[in-house]
């Protein structure tokens, strides 16, 4: 009953329960007969192989998010969807929702029971609405051979899609690129040369470098305008944690914030002595004017404005240098995670070598022919040529053939009339809003020719040499656990954000630390840790089976 309360809106739930109460065993019998009849009809209407996919006249409704970089604003009349309908014979009504309002509108649709046949795009709080979606396990072998082959090759991605009841209610969108070290610290090597210092390897050495950046005018403009360490409110200091014996992402987009795994045990590290020392170090940086005083409130765009004005010495880098520092990118290189007191470095890599969005494609209970929708997903991924077209765009517009067995993104310069490659990609294809299974072998066909790509690749191996061996894997938890964790985490995040800002700017002492330990208990960090330990243990057991 708890799951049902989570799944339906209150009014809808009351209506459903009222109907069920009046039906009794007769209704259950009729439901079973109806289900068997529908399954038989579906199997006759949908061809397992070949085209057309359907033998019946039916128009499917598919809801999807429209990328903000889509210059046309929807897929309805684009060439790639025309190709889908021409080759598969499917009739589809494409129902695009702007990505800015997609989550809100989809939540309203589900609560109202106004469901399409399928969604392309993540469902907010998906685990709480599983009764609205079709289990796909039993259909994959018969109707999705390409997906089955993909899962055989990448069993960890399949595992991440399986819910505790053993069922898959959603399928992934995958863009593997071989890059697991997605985040790093960037440091201005030209400034290092100007102040006559070596690359820092410890917290103390970094402090000395940042002091030199502040006091020795490394950008050479005669002004004291340097920002030794820049950050913004969603990307702070997580890579500095290595100097204090642990690794972790900033809390904005990491699914398991404040947690690490040590010898199989999930640990809430903000109550450790090392975290106390970490906060004291950050306060030392702040008190000496070495970190941006506006960092806790500014947006990324504010940090970029300073970076493109030659003002930043070190910054957290989650992609390419030039995004933050523009034309000054050639002055920067990566700074490895700092060594702790034992000489060890600690780094938490990305969960995947690229991007994996689990539950990107889901089929609703309203769909009378779910096998046809599964075959659509499999058709999109039936060949490299299809994945290239539906995920990136057409030849000579989004990419070019180099004539040597490789291809290159047409990104420098981009197609005339477009401002960025993101606009090209999301106007001419589904892009990352779609459901393509892009493998590392697919990605290897892209020739790496640009300096920024080569530079990004160069930091992969050195960072991965510092990678921790234990971490919480991606996967699906029990819906009720997910709900409880989300509630606990909402309060913990708010508290921890405020506590960190206060500690960094105003300092931390034993009295404040003891109060922090009491506050963490008040916000039930122990339950948060316990629930994640249960999840971790279950995922480890599944991985061994």
TrEMBL record:
PANTHER family documented for this protein: ARABINOSE-BINDING PROTEIN-RELATED, POLYGALACTURONAN_RHAMNOGALACTURONAN-BINDING PROTEIN YTCQ
Protein name: Extracellular solute-binding protein
UniProtKB keywords: Cell membrane, Lipoprotein, Membrane, Palmitate, Signal
Signal peptide range: 1-21
The keyword Transferase belongs to this UniProt entry's keyword annotation: no
Alphabetical list of InterPro entries matching this protein: Bact_solute-bd_prot1 (IPR050490), SBP (IPR006059)
Organism taxonomic ancestry: Bacteria, Bacillati, Bacillota, Clostridia, Lachnospirales
Gene3D superfamilies per the UniProt record, alphabetical: Periplasmic binding protein-like II
């Amino acid at each position: 009953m708890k799951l049902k309360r989570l799944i339906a809106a209150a009014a809808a739930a009351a209506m459903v329960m009222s109907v069920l109460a009046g039906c009794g065993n007769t209704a259950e019998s009729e439901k079973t007969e109806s289900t068997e009849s529908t399954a038989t009809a579906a199997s006759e209407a949908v061809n397992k192989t070949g085209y057309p996919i359907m033998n019946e006249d039916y128009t499917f409704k598919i809801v999807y998010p429209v990328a903000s970089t889509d210059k046309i604003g929807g897929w309805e009349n684009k060439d790639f969807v025309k190709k889908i309908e021409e080759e598969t014979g499917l009739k589809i009504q494409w129902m695009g929702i702007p990505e800015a309002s997609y989550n809100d509108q989809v939540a309203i649709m589900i609560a109202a029971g106004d469901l399409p046949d399928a969604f392309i795009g993540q469902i907010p709080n998906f685990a709480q609405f599983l009764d609205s979606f079709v289990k796909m396990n039993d259909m994959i072998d018969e109707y999705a051979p390409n997906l089955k082959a993909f899962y055989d090759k990448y069993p960890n991605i399949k595992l991440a899609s399986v819910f505790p009841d053993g069922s898959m209610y959603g399928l992934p969108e995958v863009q593997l690129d071989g890059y697991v070290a997605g985040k790093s610290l960037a440091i201005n090597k030209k400034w290092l040369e100007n102040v006559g210092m070596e690359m820092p390897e410890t917290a103390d050495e970094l402090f000395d470098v940042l002091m030199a950046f502040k006091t020795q005018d490394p950008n050479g403009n005669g002004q004291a305008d340097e920002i030794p360490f820049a950050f913004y409110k969603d990307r702070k200091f997580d890579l500095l944690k290595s100097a204090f014996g642990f690794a972790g992402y900033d809390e904005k987009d990491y699914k398991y914030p404040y947690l690490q795994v040590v010898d199989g045990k999930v640990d809430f590290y903000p109550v450790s002595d090392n975290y106390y020392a970490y906060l004291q170090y950050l306060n030392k940086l702040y008190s000496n004017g070495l970190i941006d005083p506006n960092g806790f409130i500014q947006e990324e765009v504010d940090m970029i404005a300073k970076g493109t004005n030659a003002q930043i010495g070190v910054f957290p880098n989650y992609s390419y240098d030039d995004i933050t520092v523009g034309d000054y990118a050639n002055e920067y290189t990566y700074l490895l995670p700092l060594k702790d007191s034992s000489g060890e470095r600690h780094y938490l890599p990305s969960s995947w070598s690229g991007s994996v969005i689990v539950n990107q494609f889901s089929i609703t209970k309203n769909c009378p022919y779910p096998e046809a929708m599964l075959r659509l997903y499999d058709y999109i991924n039936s060949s490299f040529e299809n994945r290239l077209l539906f995920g990136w765009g057409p030849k000579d517009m989004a990419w070019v053939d180099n004539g040597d067995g490789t291809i290159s993104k047409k990104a420098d310069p981009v197609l005339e009339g477009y401002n960025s490659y993101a606009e090209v990609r999301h106007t001419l294809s589904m892009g990352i809003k779609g459901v393509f299974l892009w493998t590392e072998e697919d990605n290897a066909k892209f020739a790496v020719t640009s300096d920024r790509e080569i530079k990004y690749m160069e930091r992969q191996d050195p960072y991965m040499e510092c990678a921790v061996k234990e971490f919480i894997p991606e996967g699906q938890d029990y819906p009720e656990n997910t709900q409880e964790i989300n509630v606990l985490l909402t309060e913990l995040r708010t508290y921890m954000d405020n506590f960190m800002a206060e500690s960094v700017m105003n300092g931390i002492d034993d009295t404040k630390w003891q109060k922090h330990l009491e506050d963490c208990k008040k916000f039930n960090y122990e339950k948060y840790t316990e629930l994640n330990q249960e999840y971790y243990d279950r995922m480890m057991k599944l991985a061994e089976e």
